[in-house]
Amino acid sequence: MSRIAIVDDSRLARMFAAGALRAQAHEVVEVEPSSLFAVLKVLRDDPVDLLVMDFLMPDCPGESLVRACREDPALQDLAILLLSAHRDDAALLRMKQHGISGFLLKPLDPAVLVARVEEALAG
């Protein structure tokens, strides 16, 4: 199946999403967002088909990560699915302009997560 990176400052959220995706035979890389540069290094060094990421992270702001991916030739075409416990329509519009694949509100429903991941991977 596909390789998917999950970036979320909540260890529990990463484990939950990873479990739902591994149950569908996806290979999952869980990434601790210690900094924007650390996440970008993992994504460059260990390529994935999809980035599933929290939007609100203190050490690695989601908007900054999306923009950095779009500016990086190695990551500019990476499919990105945003997760957030809070809906911010203005930020979501900005991220759609950067070509995100979708957005999901937390708490996540595993079936909905898997469906949205499949849609994002299908392009």
Give a topology summary.
Blueprint: E1 3-7, H1 11-22, E2 27-31, H2 36-45, E3 50-54, H3 62-71, E4 79-84, H4 89-97, E5 102-105, H5 110-122
Parallel strand pairs: 1-2, 1-3, 3-4, 4-5
Helix pairs in contact: 1-5
What does the model show?
The mean pLDDT is 95. This protein has a five-stranded parallel sheet with strand order 2-1-3-4-5, sandwiched between helices. By secondary structure, the chain is α/β, with parallel strands linked by helices. Helix content is 44%, strand content 20%. Helix 1 crosses helix 5. The protein is globular and about 30 Å long. It has a single domain, classed as Rossmann fold (3-Layer(aba) Sandwich). 30% of the residues are buried.
Catalogue the unreliable spans. none
CATH topology: Rossmann fold
The total number of structural domains is: 1
Q: What composes the largest sheet?
A: 5 strands, parallel
Structural class: alpha/beta
Assign the CATH class.
Answer: Alpha Beta
Number of strands: 5
The CATH homologous superfamily is called Response regulator
How big a fraction of the residues is strand?
15-25%
Give me the Rg, rounded.
13 Å
Q: How much helicity do the residues have?
A: 40-55%
Number of helices: 5
Mean pLDDT: 95
Distance between the termini: 15 Å
Strand line-up of the largest beta sheet = 2-1-3-4-5
CATH architecture classification = 3-Layer(aba) Sandwich
Q: Element order, helices and strands?
A: EHEHEHEHEH
Shape, per Cα inertia axes: globular
